[in-house]
Structures are given as C-alpha cells and as structure tokens.
C-alpha cells in the first residue's frame, strides 16, 4: 500500500499554547513565559456552556492579558450565537478570531464582520463537520482550524481520522493559493503532543495548538523552553518515537 502524500512545510511549525491549561491564578506570568519560550500565538478558548458543555473565559480576560504579550492572541469561539462577541473580542485585543460555522446563521457575513474589525478570520471544523464549509468562503478565510477532538474539554486523545482530513484541507488550500488566492493557515487543536506532532505537520498543519502538553511540562525554573523546543524538534522529525516523550506530559486540549 502506498503511503499517503506528505506536506513539506515552507517554514517551521507555529505553536499556539492554549491557556485553557494554564494556571489562571498567575495568568499574566504564564503568557509571558510562553512568549519567552518562543510561542507564536496565545490560543484563547472561549466556551459558553451552550454550544459546548463547558464555560470558560470572555473578553475581559483577553483584555487583561493583552498588555503582557506582543505575540498575537488567537481567539477560538466555541459559542452560539457568534456575531455579538466579535466586536468585543476585537476591542479586547484579539488578532485572529475563529468560529464554528454551525453556530452562525450567515457564515460569509460573520467572516466579513471579523475582518471589518481588523482581525484575521477563520472557521473551526469539528471532527464530524465536513470540509465543504470551506468551499464558498475561501476568499474570506485567513485560517482553518481543524478540531482533532470534540470541543469542550481538554485532555482528550487525538482522533486519528483528522490526519486524512488535514491532507484534504491542505490540498484545497494549496489549490486555492495556486490559482491566485490568499494564503490560509491550517491549524489543528486537540490531543497534539510530542509523539504525534510530526505526523500532524507532515499531513499539512502549519499551526499546532497544545494545552496541557505545554503547561503540564514546565521547566524547573517555571518556564516552558524545554517542552517548546521538544515540540519543535518532534514536529520536524515525523518518526520521533513516543518513548522520547516525557512521562509527565498528558494529552492536551
């Protein structure tokens, strides 16, 4: 049997630690630490106990952490409805806002709304949500976020079928760019850890969200340089064996 096609990234994978797994009692310190360790984004999970069965954080927390970091804040809205929160997060300092298309009555309009407030716009697709949602809004997408777990809780295992979905999403994005379309980031969120990030990147992801895999593996000094460096090495090494992963690192959100 032939091996599935692999994506060769043009640059190093970008890492987006999810602060859902951070120590909320010292959140300012935590986001400064991940930036110092080389994080590319702060991933900000918003859950409403309606679209997903959990309740997390809102615009006030986004506004509170904005002065602590220079890197972009990547807001993932797991809420329904969506549009009323877009201007609030844009004002609070979000740089990119993604939402679930099932939670918006007018996906094209919501994407335009996000962009009109100066943020990059994206859609987030659950494991059973088809990629067809991309097809008619490609010109308005800056990012596609594939959920590799069902949203709502951290600590879940990576759903293996996501690798096939990643390859197909990458094919569609590359075809769009080849015909003159804008670049679109391909992000993966859920169960990303040391022993699978290489496969995930080879399948097409260029942004990886990791929560407890990072925040559960702090350096002795309290920073995250060690785990961030290990994730980058593993991302560049598809055959990186799971036995090399620190035992203390659980699957992440």
Task: Describe the protein's architecture and organization.
The protein is of the alpha/beta class. It is 29% helix and 16% strand. The two termini are 32 Å apart.
Helix-strand layout with pairing:
Blueprint: E1 14-17, H1 27-36, E2 42-47, H2 59-65, E3 73-78, H3 86-92, E4 96-99, H4 107-116, E5 120-125, E6 143-147, H5 162-178, E7 185-189, H6 197-203, E8 207-210, H7 212-215, H8 225-235
Parallel strand pairs: 1-8, 2-3, 3-4, 4-5, 5-6, 6-7, 7-8
Helix pairs in contact: 2-3
Global mean pLDDT: 91
How many runs of DSSP E, i.e. beta strands? Answer: 8
Q: Output the strand order for the largest sheet.
A: 1-8-7-6-5-4-3-2
First-residue to last-residue Cα separation: 32 Å
Count of runs of 4 or more consecutive helical residues? 8
């Amino acid at each position: 049997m032939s091996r599935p096609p692999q994506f060769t990234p043009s640059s190093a994978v970008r890492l987006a630690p999810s602060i859902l797994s951070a120590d909320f009692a010292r959140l300012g310190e935590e986001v400064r630490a991940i930036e110092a360790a080389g994080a590319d984004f702060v991933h900000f999970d918003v859950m409403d106990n309606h679209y997903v069965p959990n309740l997390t954080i809102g615009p006030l927390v986004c506004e509170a952490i904005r002065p602590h970091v220079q890197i972009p804040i990547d807001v993932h809205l797991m809420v329904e409805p969506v549009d009323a929160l877009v201007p609030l997060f844009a004002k609070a300092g979000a740089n990119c806002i993604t939402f679930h298309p099932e939670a918006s009555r007018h996906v094209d309009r919501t994407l335009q709304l996000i962009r009109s407030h100066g943020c990059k716009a994206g859609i987030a697709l659950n494991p059973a949500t088809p990629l067809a949602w991309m097809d008619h809004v490609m010109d308005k997408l800056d990012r596609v976020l594939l959920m590799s777990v069902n949203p709502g809780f951290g600590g879940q295992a990576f759903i293996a079928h996501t690798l096939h979905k990643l390859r197909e999403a990458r094919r569609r994005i590359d075809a769009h760019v080849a015909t003159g379309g804008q670049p679109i980031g391909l992000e993966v969120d859920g169960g990303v850890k040391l022993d699978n990030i290489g496969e995930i990147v080879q399948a097409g992801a260029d942004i990886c969200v990791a929560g407890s895999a990072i925040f559960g593996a702090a350096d002795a000094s309290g920073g995250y340089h060690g785990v961030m460096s290990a994730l980058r090495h593993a991302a560049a090494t598809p055959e990186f064996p799971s036995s090399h992963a620190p035992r203390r690192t659980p699957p992440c959100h």
